Q: What sequence folds into this?
């Protein structure tokens, strides 16, 4: 019973928010850990879930940035969040390539004038 209460508290005290530019996270009830990172500073994202987690629909999302690693346990629908972060990283990289291409085209246009 105590195990179930501890797991429920863990589930209720973890938040992970994704925007098109950043990831925000908070975990803990008494001792709180918070993180925020621009997408371009994220090195890797991983997801894991045990049997009970798969049955109930929660898991652990781990985010490694250039400076540290953050583990968010008991994230509801963690597989979707993992996929969303990964997809947003790809979109961010594509936008960065387009911006770089525009800068190159502008520079070439200036030199041709």
A:
């Amino acid at each position: 019973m105590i195990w179930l209460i501890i797991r429920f508290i863990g589930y209720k005290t973890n938040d992970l928010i994704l925007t098109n530019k950043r990831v925000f996270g908070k975990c803990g009830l008494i001792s709180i850990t918070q993180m925020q990172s621009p997408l371009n500073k994220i090195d890797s994202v991983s997801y894991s879930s045990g049997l009970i987690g798969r049955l109930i629909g929660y898991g652990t999302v781990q985010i490694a940035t250039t400076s540290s690693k953050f583990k968010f346990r008991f994230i509801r629908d963690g597989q979707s969040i993992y996929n969303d972060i990964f997809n947003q990283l790809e979109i961010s990289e594509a936008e960065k390539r387009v911006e770089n291409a525009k800068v190159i085209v502008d520079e070439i246009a200036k030199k041709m004038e």
